[in-house]
Amino acid sequence: MVTDRIWSYAGDSGHTEGQRLTGFTVVASDGTIGRVDRQADDAGLRHLIVDTGVWLFGSSVLIPVGVVTAVDAAAQEVRVACTEEEIKAAPRFKTDRETLDPEYLAGVGDYYRSLPPRRAITP
User: Fold this and answer.
1) Which of 22, 41, 49, 104 has its CA 20 to 30 A from that of 59?
2) Distances in whole angstroms, Cα of residue 94 to Cα of each of 19, 55, 78, 82, 85
3) Residue of 26, 27, 44, 43 lying closest to 35 (CA atoms)
4) Up-side HSE of residue 83: CA atoms within 13 Å toward CB?
5) What is the number of H-type helices and E-type strands within the chain?
6) 25 close to 68: Cβ distance less than 8 angstroms
7) Structure pTM?
């Protein structure tokens, strides 16, 4: 997983500037985790808020875009280089205020940077 730029899309991810991902399905390396509820593309800390539905007790998770390995606009799918368990173990996202909290975002970035590197999973 490319983690040196955890808050930026990898050049080969398939993401294009200005692309809206809201509503896209998010797929971990071992299964679907939810849908993109909203995305933040400003302030250098780009991330996705993913609604996990009942998968994770009806909550949402904040995922830095640096773990996105592929964006398939035709299939409306975003693939990430994490497992479901790694995403479940990430720092909990509770409120939108956390997207402005430097300490919370630093913790999220540190967590995802600490995950083992792996190759992109393709459909």
Assistant:
1) 41
2) 26, 16, 22, 20, 18
3) 26
4) 7
5) 2, 6
6) no
7) 0.87
pLDDT of residue 46: 93
Instruction: Indicate the average pLDDT of the chain.
Output: 87
Residues 1-32 as b or e (16 or more Cβ within 10 Å = b): bbbeebbbbbeebbbeeeeebeebbbbbbeee
**Nearest by Cα to 122 from 84, 71, 86:** 71
91 phi-psi bin (left φ>0, alpha ψ -120 to 50, beta other): beta
Helix (H) or strand (E) holding 62: strand 60-64
Largest distance between two CA atoms of the chain: 36
Structure tokens at 14: 């398939």
